[in-house]
What we know:
By secondary structure, this protein is of the alpha/beta class. The protein is built from nine helices and 37 strands. It is elongated.
Amino acid sequence: MYLGPGQEIQRRRYLLFFLIIVLISNAGLTLGADNRQIIKSEEILDKIRNHEPVNYSSVIIEGDLCLWNVSSSIPTFIDSPIKIIDSEIRCNIYFNKSIFNRPVSFEKTKFNGIVRFDETVFREYANFGQSVFNGPASFSGAKFRGSASFWKSTFSRIATFRKSEFLEGSIDFHKSEFKDIAVFNFASFGGFEITFESSYFNGTTDFRQARFNGNAIFLGSRFKEDADFSGSQFNSSSNFLGSRFDRVLYFYKVKFKNLNINWDSIHHNLVSDEPGYIVLIKNFKDLGQFEDADNCYYEYREWKQHNMPFEWAKILTFLAWLTCGYGVRWTHPIFSGLLVIISFGIYYEMFDIEGTIRKNLFGRKALRDETIKLSERLKKAFLFSMIVLLSLPPEWYPYGKEEYSKLINLHLFSAIIERLIGYGLMLLLIGTLTRLMVRY
């Protein structure tokens, strides 16, 4: 069939357009395809059994990696250096009770199955930096004799380091993320530095009975759920500056030397016992954080008062809070003084108030007039109460010395009691201000 010149050009354009679409589609399929080499787990296990180096990069590993003999208590010795980086392990890993005599590196590797290194010994460097654990990861009872790195690692499911021992070298969990429960109870950190700086704990965090023998760094870490440090020991310095606790922080029987932490970051969520509070107060004083020490002491006394049985000691503790804020709140004596002035002022005028109420039954005009008179009498009573409480000269009474003498004669015993209270509040105010202003 003959086509004209215009039709031939149009046909070629359609053909060219079709070829371009096909090429783009093929390019997209090529780019979207995973071209990484697939390695069977048996190949890796054979190398380990033959003491050959295991070195893979950007591969996919299929089939379970298991060197754990459940029926045997004899550990498996692994003399092969293992380096699997930037890869994806789609199987489960069972290296329980294994002993790695050479360095181990799973840097930038994604674990999609169960990972178990329970009671495993890493005699040299163990590197899990920037790895992603999509399944449960367990290092219970594992021993890291060299440096251990979990830098920027992500644990999507429960991560268990119960009774694990980090014996030497640096221990790096810097910027790691725990999206589920993180268990470090009874763990021992013996390296020079243990860092969880900027780490994110999205689930419940358990550091009960953990022991930190090196410098523990939790700078800027975030705890979204409960964090339990009960019974933990910080035998060197520890730094929690900038850390955030969104839920409860358990601090029962904690022991530490130098704990760098801001009281404002924990006081809303802190749950502790008496020894925990005492150690915190002493720590703040030793570090020169006197305001934090005062605030911690104030909360400790409130906690103690709340847990007291109702008896004389509880009443005295309440008075200590009311009159001086347990010796750390200088505003409390002032507010207590105002309360005394109002209370005694009402007392001085209460009989006239009773008479005023009776007179109020005569009508609106009488009520208005009596209200004005009552306001004036209360003013006189309050000013008299203030003069008595502060032991000011009678000449300072705005209504004259004669009126002052008249009220003194009428309320002599009450005025003596109020003046004694005033002396006591003045002494408490001076003592509190001295304690807060003079630090040594």
